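Q: For a teaching session next week I want to show students how multiple molecules come together into a single three-dimensional assembly. I've collected the sequence lines for a complex. Could you give me the predicted structure tokens for the whole thing so I can convert them for display?
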Amino acid sequence: MADDREILRELWDGRIPTSFSLASNEVRKHFSKHVKVEHQENPMWFEFDGTPLQWHRPLGVLYDLAVMNSDGEARPPWSLVVHFDNYPHQEILRLDSPQAVEMNFMSSIKEADFIKHAGKIISTMQKKDHLQLWQGLQNDKFDQFWAVNRRLMERMSGEEGFKAIPVRIYRGDQMILQKLYKTIGPERKKRTLQDLLDEAFPDEDNSDARKLDEKTLEV
Amino acid sequence: MASAEEQSSTIDAKVMVRLQPAGDAPIMQQRNYKFLYVNQAFSPSPDQTVRHLYDCFGGEGKLVLNYAKTPMWG
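A: Of course. Below is the structure for the complete assembly, covering every listed component.
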């Protein structure tokens, strides 16, 4: 995984053209410096098509789900509404401080390492490595991020591969599906994405690639 | 295809959630703690379900969660 540099770069460079507009009932000027003084300390949140966006989910996943749920209307640019008022606490996670985003990101990294390497890589990293990961991502510094992340994405010496693959499957409004998916199957055969889908959805025909559109994978 | 909720209700299995204090958190008397961890390692996403956490990080009918008053594991 960590060796496919060109693919990693392509993924990193992926962008979603997005246009932002301020909710019509809030001050229509230019975002934070200009919103009403009493709202300036409020956390910002985004809405698409009447639904608040889950800030802790990967952006690409949110976009794919939005396209899926709106019959293809979410063609680029993706039009999001920006809000500073009436934070939808019932629908999305609280966002009490900017650190909440960083903590959420680091928790995902740790959880994934627990699945891949029983947490053995992340536990050998220092605070500065964690910071480098986060800042690399935040500042769009591919090399800075991957200098640390490659350690998390390599197999450990003596291991055939990851213990299991961290994967979440999103299906529209349904609950996220997360299980342990081993990389090696019976008779030591390397398992494929098809194997994973068959295990996750045993009652469905998963051989039709178009059906994949209905499920969004985050790996 | 049954939803995950329906699936889990049809599986006749209970997961024992074992809550262990971390740091100076007292043994549970109050119910609200600020920080929750799985296997002394990471905080699960707040919208994660116990079933998925058990599937990935539990075993032998048990799932160990740690609670704390301050951040403990990074």
